[in-house]
Amino acid sequence: MTIPREARDGYKLELAAEVLTSGGAIRLQAFGTSMLPSIWPGDILSIEPKPDTQIIPGDIVLVTRQNRFFVHRLIERRSSRWITRGDSLPRNDEPAAEEQVLGKVSLIHRRTGAVVPTPQLTRIRHALAWMLCHWDFFRNLVLHVHSFWQASSAGLLPAAARTSCPRQ
Length: 168
Description:
8-stranded antiparallel sheet; 4 helices; 8 strands
C-alpha cells in the first residue's frame, strides 16, 4: 500500500510537533533560503522545545503554519502573537499564535562544525541578507558557490574538478 506524500509529510509534522510539545528535541534539515545568511540549505537544525520565558526577540524559532514548518527569526511578541521574519525576506510573516511556535533553534550543524545561532545579525550579515533578498542574481551566485563548496568538501566532485591548476 502506497501512502501519498502529503499524508506522509503530515504525519512527520504531527510527530515532530508532538515530540516538541512533550518536551523532547528534534533535528531538521533546512531546505529554503529565507534565513540566509544565518541558515543555509542543507544545514541541520537542533530544535529545543519552547519554554516561553526563554525565547526572546532575535532568537530563531520553529513555527507551524499551513501544514508546514517555518524557521524564522522572532522579531517581537505582542501578547499572544509572535511576529517572525526570514533574515533575507523583505517583510514580516503573518503573526503566529502562541501554540504555533513549537521551539527554538539551539544549534546549527554544518560540515565545518556546529554553530550557536546569534540573536542579532552583524552589520555585515545584515547587509548580506539585504543583498540576498533584493538581488536574485547575487542570491543564485552565492547559492551556487555554496553548493560547489559543500560538494568539494564532501569529496563529491570528480578528481579533475578538485585539482588545482599547475603554476607556470
